[in-house]
């Protein structure tokens, strides 16, 4: 609901100093044992067979949405476009808040998701400035705050990995 999004955005602003942030999005490439008969379908540029877990994580490291199953050859941006989340994002049954005045300022800002460079830039999805474009203090501050908000999804993957012992590199059977 809009109230749920507003609560998440408030926590992102209070904890991570990034106003109007709804969630952090990223993909995690997971090593798999190649299914028989799949050929190079899951083989990626790093020379491994992988599938991608796409996650949307809130400011409290809670997974709001996960989608798993796209082959590892597809970029994170391509994975996003093949999810139910993306379909809902496009058609707005997610009840994303309209742009509003930022707390304690007169600036009107949209509510957004934060994502890495690989994701498509959209009205509701922002990315950092590239290093070559960091020509002002404002852009550097934006990137710093962006990084604080975006790393939440990476931290959530790390927490899951440590807690459940998953996402570790597969070792080939040498016997």
TrEMBL record:
Recorded superkingdom: Eukaryota
GO molecular function terms noted in the UniProt entry: hydrolase activity; metal ion binding; nuclease activity
UniProt entry tagged with the keyword Isomerase: no
Family affiliation: Belongs to the HARBI1 family.
Cofactor: a divalent metal cation
TM spans (from-to): none
Swiss-Prot/TrEMBL keywords: Hydrolase, Metal-binding, Nuclease, Nucleus
The protein, known as: DDE Tnp4 domain-containing protein
């Amino acid at each position: 609901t809009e109230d749920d999004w507003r609560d998440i955005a408030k926590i992102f602003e209070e904890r991570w100093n990034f106003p109007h942030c709804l969630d952090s999005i990223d993909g995690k490439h997971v090593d798999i044992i190649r299914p028989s008969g799949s050929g190079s379908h899951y083989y990626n540029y790093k020379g491994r067979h992988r599938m991608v877990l796409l996650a949307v994580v809130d400011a409290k490291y809670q997974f709001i949405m996960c989608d798993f199953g796209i082959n590892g050859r597809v970029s994170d941006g391509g994975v996003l476009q093949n999810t139910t989340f993306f379909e809902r994002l496009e058609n707005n049954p997610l009840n994303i808040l309209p742009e509003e005045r930022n707390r304690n300022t007169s600036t009107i800002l949209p509510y957004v998701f934060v994502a890495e460079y690989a994701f498509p830039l959209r009205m509701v999805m922002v990315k950092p400035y590239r290093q070559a474009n960091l020509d002002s203090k404002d852009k550097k501050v934006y990137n710093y705050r962006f990084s604080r908000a975006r790393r939440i999804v990476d931290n959530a993957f790390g927490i899951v990995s440590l807690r459940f012992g998953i996402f570790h590199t597969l070792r080939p059977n040498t016997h």
